[in-house]
Amino acid sequence: MINILVVDDQKHIRDGLQAMLRQFPLQLDNIYCATGGIEALQILRQHSIQLVITDIMMPDMDGLTLMAQTKEERIKVDYLIISGYSDFSYAQKAIGLGAKGYLLKPVKREDLQSAVEHVWQEIRTRQVLSLNMEHISRRAQETDRKELCMFMQGAVNDEAWIRQTQQQNPELWQGYRLCLLREELRINQPGVSNAHGMESIAYQVYGRQGCICLQHRPYLILAVDAVIDTEALPTALKAGQIDAITAMTEPQQGLMGLPGSYTQVLELYRHSYLFPEKRCVLREHTQRLERQWELPHEKLYALFQLIGTKNSGQLIQEISMLFHKNVLQRYHIQYTEQLCRAMVQMLEEYERVIRPYMGEEALDIDCLRNLFDYPGIREYIQALQQQVLRLNQFYYEYKCSYRNSQDLNEAIRFIHESYHKPLDLAMVSNHVSLNYAYFSNLFKKNVGKGFTEYLRDVRLDKARRLLSETDHKIVEVAAMVGYESYKSFTRAFRDVMDMQPTEYRQMMRRKQEREGKYRETAL
């Protein structure tokens, strides 16, 4: 689809040409009109026009002058010339200026259609070729970028490739810095990465020849002109309302230094976690950092000694002191990484102790393994505090549960020792020094049945053994297992076993006789 501009100082000719154009079986977008060359030039400057159909003789600016002016201003457009004169010199001048056709007035419909279709076909062919060339160019650029990125990350390439690549942008590779950009996004902040916006601003600062994009993800990495001041890009990003961390290497010469610059820029970016107040981290900010240290193991152990207590405020305070910026900013970033790993190891050790008691609950320790998964050190410390506080709560509940289990074990031991005596819940709860109602709930929750039911099962289990292994009378068995009356014993036995005690004894005697005969036969 194309836009056409009709230029003629006579209205009836303009209207006639428009009417004919709209009848043609062509895909036309818009048809503009102008009364002369000056108005036509303004329209050409403001709109994308592919074809101009213009008269030659017009009062303010004739058609040939209009063609010459658009050529001077490098406005790409095709022309069809119409004229009431058959002088061949006009046609020669028009063709010399690039006209695609020359039509005499009065313009015949079929001549106009044939000329416009011919120009339209040329325009379509050029558009398709242009798109194909753009596509090929983009693919070639993307291939070059990927090769550069792989070389930057350590892939081996031959000297011929290095020389050829340097020659494509010799001025930049003679003096460049690697620049890493990462937009500051808060955890759970909606929105998508603005990498292309940052890249666009970088090209505005350094120009197309002074900036090459080497990587988009996970960080935007650019090779930029080392002559430009290091504050220029952070300032432009701030003006563009993009909050980004910038890390820049020292100036480098030659493509051979690219892998080393890549290692340096990643290290500078990691150090940006130590200096959250700096928008641009340079080598000078890290040169004085100490590279020898000892982790504060005693403070770590002291912190975890607080786990399982109600001192959550002190836990947070101790973590804040361990990760205080005045401490972290003394050392290389590896100190902070080692401190994070030590915290994770301590969390794992403590969680391992109580994991069987946590059920479906669990700590999210994996989220703490990589400091650089977070926008900054502050967010990491917040996540760390949250997991430590969760561990503290779990451990506190575990310690309470452990104390309760000791009380329960003593209560159960007491029941098995005293089942043959008069026994009730109050006596057992007093024995373990627990509140009656609390002990009742605790017993049922952990044992799975109430105290009365449990005591009954213990007594009946002892009764079954006495019935099958001794000749004591039923009334004697009832008294021996703690029942005050024969009736209450037989009723309880029948409810559980679905038979009388005498029936159970007879059944067990018959079973023993059968087993005795079987053993005699086997011998």
UniProtKB/TrEMBL annotation:
Record-annotated HTH araC/xylS-type domain positions: 409-507
4-aspartylphosphate modification, residue list: 55
Keyword Thylakoid: no
UniProt name for this protein: Two-component system, response regulator YesN
InterPro entries, alphabetized: CheY-like_superfamily (IPR011006), Homeodomain-like_sf (IPR009057), HptR (IPR051552), HTH_AraC (IPR018060), Sig_transdc_resp-reg_receiver (IPR001789)
Cell compartments where the protein resides: Cytoplasm
Cytoplasm found in the keyword field: yes
Annotated Response regulatory domain residues: 3-120
SMART domains: HTH_ARAC, REC
Key words of the record: Cytoplasm, DNA-binding, Phosphoprotein, Transcription, Transcription regulation, Two-component regulatory system
Superkingdom to which the source organism belongs: Bacteria
